[in-house]
Give the backbone structure.
Amino acid sequence: MKNLIDILDLSTEEIEELIQKANDIIAHPEAYREKCRYKKMATLFFEPSTRTRLSFEAAMYELGGQVLGFSEAQSSSVAKGESVSDTIRVVSGYADIIVMRHPKEGAPMVATNVSYVPVVNAGDGGHNHPTQTLTDLLTIAREKGRFDNLTIGFCGDLKFGRTVHSLISAMARYPGVKFVLVSPQELKLPSYIKKEVLKKQGIPYVQTTDLESVMADLDILYMTRVQRERFFNEEDYLRLKDMYILTPDKLANAKEDLSILHPLPRVNEIATSIDDDPRACYFKQAVYGKYIRMALILKLLEVD
Amino acid sequence: MNIDSIQNGIVIDHIKAGRSMQIYNLLHLDELECSVAIIKNASSGKMGKKDIIKIDSVMDVDLDILGFVDPSATINIIRNGELVEKKRLELPRELRGVLRCKNPRCITSTERDIVHIFKLTDPATATYRCKYCETKAERRGV
């Protein structure tokens, strides 16, 4: 039985296979409508989420399956003090696959120790969020048609942004990839990622605080939100949150075929006037999230 | 200084100077009934100074703990006054129940009866990370 806890659990071949499957679902959705008939997915959201939970649920419904679960810890047995292991032991007797989000890092890994069915990590605190990375990879594959020889800019909160860390780890496996890291000093990419992922594999990267100076080099611009919940000090948050706001004038030097990605939700880091620019991919990206999750469910349930 | 040689027992040699008490505590040698000698700052050709622990009884030593704390140490098994086996240590691939994860956001901080597990992620720098949250292990205060 296979689980998805960390994006690096998947080989590049397995990622390629999932992307091919997602593309086939997009092209022939009707062929997949009954694939998961009589199958049940449990969505255990110990921490609230809108997009991730709804996209998983929509994915399962589109495959003809059923969904059960809870969307906050308060309405679950956790409120009574049940451990993650006990909850999972019970639920894995009721469902064919478990999707879980939990505020504690490593909770889905604990689930895999006791679950009888596949477990998918839908976010564990600030640690991993592999299905967001799969979503990002499907978007890159569809927009660029390749993973190699790309210059990828990340902008905003590179310190706490788990989607950034996972996407860097995933893209670092392809040849000719360069990273441009744009952030305030306080929110730079953690040094252990630079050391253990980038330097170790000899992957070129540039660090800067100035987005416009590097804009012309980018094939992909991955914007992120500065997250209020990661700060202890409100003052620091207020000072840093508006440092990078993508507006049409900042795209003046950008390539014609730049792809702008964002894991969403957006606050104000991308001006709404960019939404109609053909280079804005973030709403398409959210839709792709449903299709790649459909492909993942099929793979983990071993349905062809 | 003179310490009697042992007849049947274990000598942990080439311990980095200053680490012997830590090893004594981690291996729970205080619980033994037999004599245990801790020699600190013994002179060593290779190391300058080293610590040595002599245990006057043949027992199972947790090589994983020892390998983590001081991979350069060696273990000599003595029987009838003769050296019968010399073991070199390696960094253990996994440490179970030796270290506690210090990350307050890690699931191990709240999950009941969970075994804290650390995995060797970089042998070159002897880096261990929590299996669950990937936080780096701290050697200090082990």
In short: Residues 282-300 of chain A form the longest helix (19 residues).
